[in-house]
Amino acid sequence: FDSQLLKDDVNGLRDQGIPVIVSIGGQNGIVIKYVAEKDEFVKGLKEIVDEYNFDGIDLDFEGGSLTDFSYNGISACPKLKNVVDAFEEIKQHYGSNFILTCAP
Question: N or C: which end of the chain has fewer CB within 10 A?
Fold first, then answer.
């Protein structure tokens, strides 16, 4: 893996006005059981976004059936609530132009 090549590709696309996002999640999903795990997850994700200059994050929930994405609906499920809290922190950190997408 050539990290500089990826950085050059990201910057080349951004120079053309094309936003570049990193996709995380997938078949096994993202499970954050505790607030301390959320804090470490946020820290690590910020490091990745900053290192590669990504414009956003795509959160991919595969293989699960989530029927109520409201904050009240997920509050009973701490694992999912911690994921939402993590992404709210990230969005606040990077501001309104930072792209967040989700595929439930």
Answer: N
Radius of gyration of the chain (CA): 15
Q: Is 103 exposed, middle or buried (0-12, 13-18, 19+ CB in 10 A)?
A: exposed
Nearest Cα neighbor of 14 from 51, 53, 45, 44 is 53
Q: State pLDDT tens for residues 31-60.
A: 677 888 889 989 999 999 999 999 999 987
| Cβ atoms of 91 and 49 closer than 8 Å | no
Return d(Cα 93, Cα 64) in angstroms, integer.
28
Residues labelled as active-site residues = 62
Q: If we measure between CA atoms, which residue out of 5, 93, 2 comes closest to residue 41?
A: 93
Contact predicate 82/34, CB 8 Å: yes
DSSP 53: T
